[in-house]
TrEMBL record:
Gene3D superfamilies: P-loop containing nucleotide triphosphate hydrolases. Pfam families: SLFN-g3_helicase (PF09848). Signal peptide: none annotated. It comes from Secundilactobacillus angelensis. InterPro entries: AAA+_ATPase (IPR003593), P-loop_NTPase (IPR027417), SLFN_3-like_DNA/RNA_helicase (IPR018647). It comes from the Bacteria. SMART domains: AAA (SM00382). Residues 38-175 form the AAA+ ATPase domain. This is DUF2075 domain-containing protein.
Length: 404
């Protein structure tokens, strides 16, 4: 029986009319350009929760079926599905193990595929890339990537790329992308851009989605309409431990409920446990997950705090989000501010050689933090709970919305 994450991404899940139309259009684009001398790119954009990964999963399944059809233009094509996210890759490989004609080895990390193809002097036909905003845009020796840009490296190895891009989910300077940067890089290639609009993950009123987008966009704290509580459980907590207890209760009822946090607490990849402490609340950060099961689906992780690296791309039923020390309220009480001096995720903000302007670097750090908050706030299908470390922000949220 498939787990929740696999069910979401199953190629047998019935697509919406918008998704089905996009899948058909992408197939036509691939067929039209599969034998071109110049590689072509099909770009799918859309905010978190609009079903981009669902589209890719179904598209890739169709491509693999077509590669076994002698009458199809894609017969005998060599195609790969890529995602630069180890937890999400586990889900795709789980799905592949249950499908006829689809092999687990067809799902790869970009660096692994690039290095193997270059070593063997080989190319492939179609590449499908989920979360392309996670592609490295500079060399990264830690991840054994010695090129200058993973997207360009892949374009040198294939005929067609289909990529999902969401500039609001860019989280690291070494994967620093904007829509303008992407368009400039792709300008020499035949391309088509399409956009998914409808939000599917959160069973929430549009006013709550807009509230989140303003919180992480222009950083305004908008008023919320009462209608947002009709179908969605949104709460603000003045006590992080009470929020944890409520998440545990929800996890016992419906499963897939977890505490997550932004940066701002001790965190080092040294194999040891590093704790987030807020009053009586004390839990360790998520540990590196060596199993084949995604972090959010391991029962014991109810006793850990998830990060952007374990939760991006996943649905949770209920999410309890700790807004850490960098997230503060402005002195006039009107806006959210990001104190970059309190960022503890040093891996995300390693300096880039092509970014020397201190104002540009500061703006990027602020935006990457806001992107992370947006992604974490949109994990919960049924509910979102908030606790803010900053006393002024916590008081403002509790006064304006709901105190628990």
């Amino acid at each position: 029986m498939q787990n929740k994450a696999s069910q979401k991404l199953s190629p047998f899940k019935k697509p919406t009319q918008e998704q089905a139309s996009l899948i058909n259009d992408a197939q036509r684009f691939i067929s039209q350009h599969i034998h071109d001398k110049t590689p072509a790119v099909y770009v799918i954009t859309g905010d978190a929760g609009t079903g981009k990964s669902v589209v890719l999963s179904q598209l890739f399944y169709r491509l693999q079926q077509a590669s076994h059809d002698e009458k199809n233009v894609l017969w005998q094509t060599q195609n790969y599905f890529m995602v630069n996210h180890p937890e999400l890759l586990k889900v795709y490989r789980q799905i592949a193990g249950e499908l006829p004609g689809v092999l687990k080895k067809s799902f790869q990390r970009p660096t692994s595929l690039i290095n193997r193809m270059r070593k063997d002097h080989k190319t492939f036909d179609v590449g499908v890339i989920d979360e392309s905003h996670l592609l490295l845009s500079q060399p990264d020796h830690y991840n054994n990537f010695y090129g200058h840009n993973q997207l360009l490296s892949l374009l040198e190895l294939c005929h067609v790329l289909v990529i999902v891009f969401d500039s609001h989910q860019v989280l690291r300077l070494k994967t620093y992308w904007t829509a303008d940067r992407l368009k400039e890089l792709l300008s020499p290639y035949p391309q088509k851009w399409v956009h998914l609009n409808q939000q599917f993950r959160m069973h929430a009123d549009d006013s709550l989605i807009q509230w989140i987008d303003h919180f992480t966009g222009d950083r305004q704290l908008l008023p919320l309409q009462e209608s947002f509580r009709l179908h969605y459980d949104f709460r603000v907590f003045s006590d992080a431990e009470k929020m944890r207890q409520t998440i545990v209760t929800q996890n016992c009822k419906v499963g897939l409920s977890r505490i997550v946090s932004t940066t701002g607490y001790p965190s080092t990849l040294d194999g040891g446990k590093h704790y987030i402490t807020e009053g009586k609340f004390k839990l360790p950060w998520d540990q590196y997950n060596f199993t084949a099961t995604p972090w959010a689906e391991i029962p014991e992780t109810i006793n850990e705090v998830g990060s952007i690296y374990t939760c991006q791309g996943f649905d949770l039923n209920y999410v309890g989000l700790i807004l850490g020390p960098p997230v503060t309220l402005s002195a006039d009480g009107k806006k959210i501010e990001i104190d970059t001096s309190k960022i503890t995720d040093s891996e995300s903000f390693k300096q880039r050689d092509d970014m020397s302007d201190p104002h540009e670097i500061l703006a990027a750090k602020v935006q990457l933090n806001l992107n992370a908050i947006n992604v974490l706030m949109k994990r919960g299908v049924k509910g979102l709970y908030l606790f803010a470390h900053d006393p002024a922000l916590r008081q403002r949220l509790c006064q304006q919305y709901q105190t628990m």
